[in-house]
Amino acid sequence: MEKTKWYFINSGPCSPSYNMALDEALLDWHSEGLIPPIVRFYEWNPATLSIGYFQSVEKEIDMDAIEKLGLGFVRRPTGGRGVLHEHELTYSVIVTESYPNMPATVTEAYRVISEGLLLGFQNLGLDAYFSVPDTEQKRQDLKKPKSAVCFDAPSWYELVVEGRKVAGSAQTRQKGVILQHGAILLDLDEDKLIQTFKFSSNELRERVKASLSKKAVSINKISQKPITIDECKVAFKKGFEEALQIELVEFSLTEEQERYVKELEMKRYANDAWNFKK
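The structure assignment produced for this chain is given below.
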């Protein structure tokens, strides 16, 4: 039986504003029926702190530290908490809510899409599994994040190895389309990550920093051998193909599509009115 064909883009390192604009553009084109579902891999230049759509810059983010560290900054169209994109492979999946066998609920759709991540980690030889809260208290805790830092705790169906989070993802639904994107950690600079957030006290800052190593871990901390970004791309591309039973076909943007992305970038993600609106 012939597999359904989805598009695949390997963008490489791009600016934070371009990365978010391209994800949104792909959602737009898919909603209009111009392209099939798509999986995209990308990286960040410069290293960037991205924050969730609902986060408050004024309350949670130390912009002086971001400038001092030479980091980029962008607000995502998706929810979730702050993520430092540095030593990682970022993925996005764009697919209609009405796609065959796609669950209607956010949580279950998240699980279906994240099966590709699960198989990707397993393709790298890692014993990854889904985080599922096993008590009512843990389920309630997920509704009240303890800090603005994404990797401070695993959420429903987040990927964990040895009880620690190895990938952080977020999702939005617009125009009948699901956009899920997330960070696959190759390495994690905990000091740098913590510096970018505001805390009510130094004691709390130190507590969150100390807890990070217990709650989050990078691939190269637990792998038997160093894993490169190219090895990650191969493992996770195969993982998505296997999990979603699809064939990924390389896709390049036309000049007209590139213009659309650039317009969206200038209007939104490279615009202070968007990034600092909360």
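Interim note for the steering committee: The chain has eleven helices and eleven strands. The radius of gyration is 18 Å.
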